[in-house]
Target: Het-domain-containing protein
Amino acid sequence: MRMVMENLDRYKEGIRYSDLPLTFQHAVTVTRSLGVKYLWIDALCIIQDDQDDWQQESGNMAAIYRDAYFVIGADMSRDSNKGFLDVPETDFHDDKKLIAVDSESNPIFVREEYRRGGEWDQPLAFEPLRRRAWTLQEQILATRMVHFTSQEMVWECRYGLLCQCMHLDRAGGNSLELRGYFAYHFPRKFKAWYQVVNEVMQRHITKPEDILPCLSGLARLLHGHEAGRYLAGLWSNDLPAGLLWIVNHPGKRPDPYRGPSWSWTSVDQRYSPYPSIDSFRPENEDPTLKVAYAKVLEVECTPSGKDPLGTISSGFLKISGPLIRLTEKIIGERRYDIEVGVKTELYCLLVGELWRAQAEVPTRGLILRQRLDTSLSTFERVGCLKLEKGTEAEVMRGVEDSVVTIV
Model:
């Protein structure tokens, strides 16, 4: 069940409880049982076939999840027809393990602790909800969230988790760490951001072009503050260091367009066994470079819809720095974003050395290919180069800074 233009007026008049799919019915039951009057369900509160309404409301996701009294996570449900309240009893509910202890005031019940092996979030990690890209930001942004898993209920908030088996009665775990980064002013927001990006890449997304809308709610919390301007998945205050991302395996340019080549959104990694990016985040999270050779002069992204932090139609970056022709004499590790022909003439714009505690970090640069359909100073990024340590002086000898535009 979903709201579209065809049924909008009819749904405004009302929807009978019996007409709702089981998962929605269960959500209504939980909401009413807790005395909450209003329930927001994306499929019924966003006009699904109205692109303008969809873009506008997806931009409001941060406020919706952050300001909600609580968020219901139907973790065990693969779709809206499965429901989530019919959880089978598991061994930690065995009555034989419950012991009644007499007390003068109230009865006390003691049972054997259910010891769960594996990671802290094991009851959540393999549930269907965790495989969907769109659900990541709701878990991070929600002040309170109750998960209905295939085994038990799990309560999650900014201070920790509590489950029925009483094993997860402590703070910890990756999602709680990320929740803290986005809730408060922590110095490691760039690290947290790229953790989120990698997590989204590991999840299923029906329309890969929705990758930026999937992140817009979280991006809205950082945009305009210490992270600077949001630029197709990167941040202005993290440039030029933020340009030095790499992918695990070469991908393809996506169709439809997702972002300029200097952004990780420009690489379609759907067919990569482990889609992710490495952002080379230094340990102290200082976004500057230890040694900077390049300087960003101008950068712009043009939104394609109503949400300025959602999908984009174009973008460019004007940058100055040492530009060298990439030949076999340039020794270093080359990591390509996409497949590049052997005879393709390539260049490298040296960006600088990232700071990393107690470690010598070689100079890194962007591998560029000239765009034949534009001016001679317009390039596209096709990879990243890590120079062999100690070769910088020889490589840059006699090289003057150039100003190039990357699209």
The chain is about 20% helix and 25% strand. Residues 323 and 349 are 5 Å apart (CA to CA). Confidence is low (pLDDT under 50) at residues 168-172.
